[in-house]
UniProtKB/TrEMBL annotation, chain A:
Protein name: ABC transporter, permease protein
One example of a Gene Ontology biological process annotation: siderophore-iron import into cell
Recorded GO CC terms: plasma membrane
Protein family membership: Belongs to the binding-protein-dependent transport system permease family. FecCD subfamily.
CDD domains documented for this protein: TM_ABC_iron-siderophores_like (cd06550)
Major location category of this protein: membrane
Membrane-spanning intervals of the chain: 21-40, 80-98, 110-129, 135-154, 161-186, 206-228, 255-281, 293-311, 323-342
Molecular function in Gene Ontology: transmembrane transporter activity
The organism's place on the tree of life at top rank: Bacteria
Coiled-coil intervals, chain numbering: none
Keywords: Cell membrane, Membrane, Transmembrane, Transmembrane helix, Transport
Membrane topology: Multi-pass membrane protein
Automatic annotation (TrEMBL), chain B:
ABC transporter domain: residues covered: 3-238
Lineage of origin: Bacteria, Bacillati, Bacillota, Clostridia, Eubacteriales
PANTHER family: IRON COMPOUNDS ABC TRANSPORTER, ATP-BINDING PROTEIN, METAL TRANSPORT SYSTEM ATP-BINDING PROTEIN TM_0124-RELATED
Superkingdom: Bacteria
Species assigned in the record: Syntrophomonas zehnderi OL-4
Record keywords: ATP-binding, Nucleotide-binding, Transport
UniProt-listed InterPro entries: AAA+_ATPase, ABC_transporter-like_ATP-bd, ABC_transporter-like_CS, Metal_Ion_Import_ABC, P-loop_NTPase
Protein name: ABC transporter-like
Length: 349, 282
């Protein structure tokens, strides 16, 4: 009886500490969010930042130049928002896929979304489309690649999850080859570098227009995943078992793929290829709050947003020249992932 | 509630594995399903659960054909206990048991305190409340099997289907799991259990169904159904069935593989190797 009581206390303590942990993650995100406004070539002291932000709602006397407002609202705000949204979206998609495929080594581009988006963008740049045109092409490219993957997997009479992963790898490779093909024929002085830089991933030229464009697909995907998050636990037990437990696995699978693809394609379309976030962050989140998607998904979202914002700040500040974000996320993500594998209690077996 | 299979045929794609399977299970009964590896026990179970489309005949729950039922509708009546397995993520035991509530929870919701209560009752029924906050992937195989039974109970089903629930368990855990199965039948659940050992069928089932070459070879009470001859047809080995009286003065039947040691074999007539083998088996 006493042990039972002790465990009950432990259990409630556990769920409470998880709420606390989510709170800490939220706080970390908010702190990095505020700090990010002050960091940069043009320095904005925190006190001034608070005044400028405060002036948006309160009638404060304006004792700063227009440049400060431009830097805060036109330059840094869109970039900060984009980093948070993309980091959160890729991490949520990665976490959802890892459960659905019962495999902790899966990332959001497993079904070819990134390769497809990269191909769309490369094609857009090759045909000298406007920035918006390139973004739309990238978004469509991501959707088309995943639609192909999904369509092909339905025709494979075999383990449906394995069929999805296999056709995803095939379609991804196909689009990667197509990207190389476009690079090969592209003008080497003008378009080839543009394609190469785009593929490296960067948030340097994000403006508010870009944010308006991707906020809907990202938010729709994220909210639907958030609402369905408990069911992802059941899905992680395997498709057949989930179905026997009463889950409409086919429908859930389609919805999850749709949400993840919307989020990933939208992210890639404005930020380029940003790897490793969607693989590393869900792991880190699992170590902090455990594998239950009820808390794992929100934790991944908060942690992913904070992480990518921090890395993007580093991309802006570390060198005199902007470092492509995709390179930094890999340079930081891979050693960090190896560290997790070697040194800590895994969030999975 | 009554589960009835009426002339069921099932298999994969065009390939027929089982034909003309008719069978009835009522609340409070444990039916043991015996047959060699690959005889179609798992295929039959998958077809009943709706994981495989049936090729002919009907699965009826209280007289209603469940062919068009959704997975949630089936899950509210039929609980399933798979063979022991390990999921890739270290869920807490309570979270695993709560998954049994899936069919009762609105798609956009998480389990409520009422669901937690039902899951806790299921743990209590199997005397494993102490596992509540343990990590499912870190407990023993026997405990994990009991957790899976608790999860099926949290579904509040009328029918339980078990696919070799004791495979890969040690001797003690096999007995523990099976005694819980008997206890559950006492709660008026109808239980269909495939098993490897004829002795388990003797001890824990009211009726047995012998599957052989895609058909039911025989079904009935364990005592009259499990004979040495039928076991030879099923498994291709010689078996002696021996009656023993236990200390409660109850007659129990035990199967003993007899190898070459058969009365009709004249030890003088067989080769030296065979003789050694026969003696070793004796």
């Amino acid at each position: 009886m006493q042990t039972v009581l002790k465990q009950k206390i432990a259990a409630t303590g556990n769920s409470k500490s998880n709420t606390g942990r989510i709170g800490v993650l939220l706080l970390v995100l908010v702190v990095i969010f505020i700090l990010s406004f002050t960091l940069g070539r043009y320095s904005v002291p925190p006190s001034q930042l608070l005044q400028v932000l405060g002036a948006q709602i309160l009638p404060l006397e304006k004792n700063w130049g227009d440049t400060v407002e431009t830097v805060i609202f036109q330059v840094r705000l869109p970039r900060i928002l984009a980093a948070i949204m993309i980091g959160a979206a890729l991490s949520a998609a990665g976490a959802a896929y890892q459960g659905m495929f019962k495999n902790p080594l899966v990332s959001p581009d497993i079904l070819g979304a990134s390769a497809g988006a990269g191909f769309g963008a490369a094609l857009g740049i090759y045909f000298a489309m406007s920035m918006v045109g390139v973004q739309i092409m990238a978004f469509i490219g991501g959707l088309v690649a995943v639609a192909l993957t999904y369509g092909i997997s339905l025709r494979i009479k075999h383990d449906p999850m394995l069929a999805l992963v296999l056709s995803g790898i095939m379609i991804g490779s196909l689009f990667t080859a197509a990207i190389s093909c476009i690079k090969y024929i592209a003008d080497p002085y003008d378009k080839l570098p543009a394609i190469t830089f785009w593929l490296m991933g960067s948030l340097a030229s994000i403006n508010l227009q870009d944010i308006y464009m991707v906020v809907t697909p990202i938010m729709v995907g994220m909210i639907v995943l958030f609402l369905l998050r408990w069911r992802l636990n059941v899905m992680a037990m395997g498709e057949e078992e989930a179905q026997v437990l009463g889950l409409n696995t086919r429908r859930l699978k389609t919805i999850v793929i749709l949400c993840c693809t919307l989020m990933t394609a939208a992210s890639v379309s404005i930020g380029g290829l940003i790897g490793w976030v969607g693989l590393v962050i869900p792991h880190l989140a699992r170590m902090i709050v455990g594998p239950n998607y009820r808390v794992l998904l929100p934790a991944s979202i908060l942690l992913g947003g904070a992480y990518l914002l921090l890395v993007d700040d580093m991309a802006r500040l570390l060198a005199s020249m902007e470092i492509p974000l995709g390179i930094l996320t890999a340079l930081i993500g891979v050693p960090f992932f190896l560290y997790l594998l070697l040194n800590s209690k895994w969030g999975w077996k | 509630m009554k589960l009835k299979l009426d002339n069921l045929s099932c298999g994969y794609g065009q390939r027929k594995v089982l034909e003309n399977i008719s069978l009835e299970i009522n609340g409070g009964e444990v039916i043991g399903l015996l047959g060699a590896n690959g005889c179609g026990k798992t295929t039959l179970i998958k077809s009943i659960l709706g994981l495989l489309p049936t090729q002919g005949g009907e699965v009826l729950l209280d007289g209603k054909n469940i062919k068009r039922w959704t997975s949630a509708q089936i899950a509210r009546v039929v609980g399933y206990i798979p063979q022991m397995h390990t999921p890739p993520f270290p869920f807490e035991v309570l979270d695993v048991v709560l998954m049994g509530r899936t069919a009762h929870i609105n798609p956009f919701a998480s389990p409520s305190s009422k669901d937690v209560k039902i899951a806790e009752q299921a743990l209590e029924m199997l005397n494993i409340t102490y596992l509540r906050n343990r990590i499912y992937t870190e407990i023993s195989g026997g405990e994990r099997q009991l957790v899976l039974i608790a999860r099926a109970l949290a579904q509040e089903p009328k029918i339980l289907i078990m696919d070799e629930p004791t495979s890969s368990l040690d001797f003690g855990n096999q007995i523990k799991v099976l005694s819980h199965v008997k206890q559950l039948a006492g709660l008026n659940l109808a239980i269909l259990m495939s098993c490897h050992f004829p002795e388990h069928a003797f001890l824990y089932s009211n009726r047995v169904v012998l599957l052989n070459e895609g058909r039911i070879l025989h079904s009935g009470t364990p005592g009259e159904t499990i004979t040495a001859e039928r076991l030879k047809t099923l498994y291709g080995v010689e078996v002696e069935i021996v009656s023993v009286i236990n200390r409660l003065n109850k007659e129990l039947k035990v199967c003993i593989p007899s190898g070459y040691f058969r009365p009709e074999i004249d030890l003088a007539q067989i080769s030296a190797t065979e003789r050694n083998y026969a003696l070793a088996n004796y």
